[in-house]
Amino acid sequence: MELRTLRALVEVVRQGGFSQAARVVFATQPTVSKAVKQLEDELQMVLLDRQSQPPRLTQAGEVVYRRALTMLAECDDLKTELDEIRGLKRGILRLGLPPLGSRSLFAPLFARFRSRYPTVEIRLIEHGSRRLEEMIIAGELELAASLTPVPTAFEWQPVAREPLVALLPPDHPHPGAMHVNLWQLRQSPFILFDEGFALNRLLEDAWRQAGITPTVAARSGQIDFMIALVAAGLGVAFLPRLELQARSIGGVACVPLVEPGTDWELGLIWRRGGYLSHAAQAWLALARELRPSASARA
Fold first, then answer.
1. Starting from the edge strand earliest in sequence, which strands make up the sheet with 92-97, in order?
2. Over the stretch 90-117, which tens digit does the pLDDT of each residue have?
């Protein structure tokens, strides 16, 4: 079994087709198709349903794809370690950040990191935390920011912990309350983040614990748009307190949410047992400097 055939399969799935995969691996479409067929012949199993568009993994293909991601990530780790042993002059930090909280928490860190390590290139990806976790497992990122609780596949270092605030429309029954809980808001429709955001997972767990089945009015990945939807009376949204401190909000009541297990805690995560480049280690060390109480957690 060769890494090139595994990479061909992975990229066909990631890119949604053989032609698209060929552009990514700098090969021709027939070469990619031949590599996948070679892998199938070697394993004596069909891995892709080529009749569907885009091609879909078979049951056997799912197993091989999952294992291939791990093997390719390990190979990338190996190359990174060897490059640094050879005395690589310019480091690369592959970092993933979610839109929520990054402006307040990481912009100062970027400036400090750049001044201290001017030759290190930062390759930044922005997605919801769930997607970033997938990219860490696939070896596409070294570090990412994600919400706790952190899955067991990762080690992590805390960055910030903030209470959630409920954003209430002007006609809501509790706009002047000192605080609210989820039971008091159970009759309200909710405005949630897109599926890739881990904040949804935190809220879903809290609703389940409270015995509430929420009504979702809308989803969005844009914080300012969500605030505008609340102001228009569409429903209730939730944000960590620091996001409100960084914004001027009008026409919306901001009331602290008092509910067990709903604190928004953000951490930097990396693959358990995975190799961290010197650039990634430097980023973690600098984050600890700016938040001295932070320490790595298994």
1. 121-126, 92-97, 143-147, 264-271, 154-162
2. 678 899 999 888 888 898 899 998 888 8
What does DSSP say about strands 164-168 and 237-240: parallel, antiparallel, or unpaired?
Answer: antiparallel
State the DSSP string of 131-173.
HHHHHHHTTS-SEEEEESSPPTTEEEEEEEEE-EEEEE-TT-S
Identify whether the C-beta of residue 290 lies closer than 8 Å to the C-beta of residue 108: yes
Of these ranges, 125-134, 173-182, 207-216, 286-295, the one predicted with the greatest mean pLDDT is: 207-216
- The CA distance from 246 to 51, in Å, is 50
What's residue 115's pLDDT? 86
Q: How many CA atoms lie within 13 A of 127 on its CB side?
A: 17
Write down the pTM of the prediction. Answer: 0.66
Measured distance CA(23)–CA(27) in Å, rounded = 6
- Taking only Cα atoms into account, the Rg of the chain, rounded to an integer number of angstroms, comes to 22
Q: Cβ distance 196 to 129 under 8 Å?
A: yes
Instruction: Report the amino acid identity of residue 116.
Output: R
Greatest Cα pair distance in the chain: 68
Distance separating alpha carbons of residues 14 and 20, to the nearest angstrom: 9
Report yes or no: 101 and 193 within 8 Å, Cβ to Cβ.
Answer: no
Residue 250 has pLDDT above 70, yes or no: yes
Q: Are 185 and 256 in contact (CB under 8 A)?
A: no
Closest of 268, 263, 264 to residue 295, by C-alpha: 268
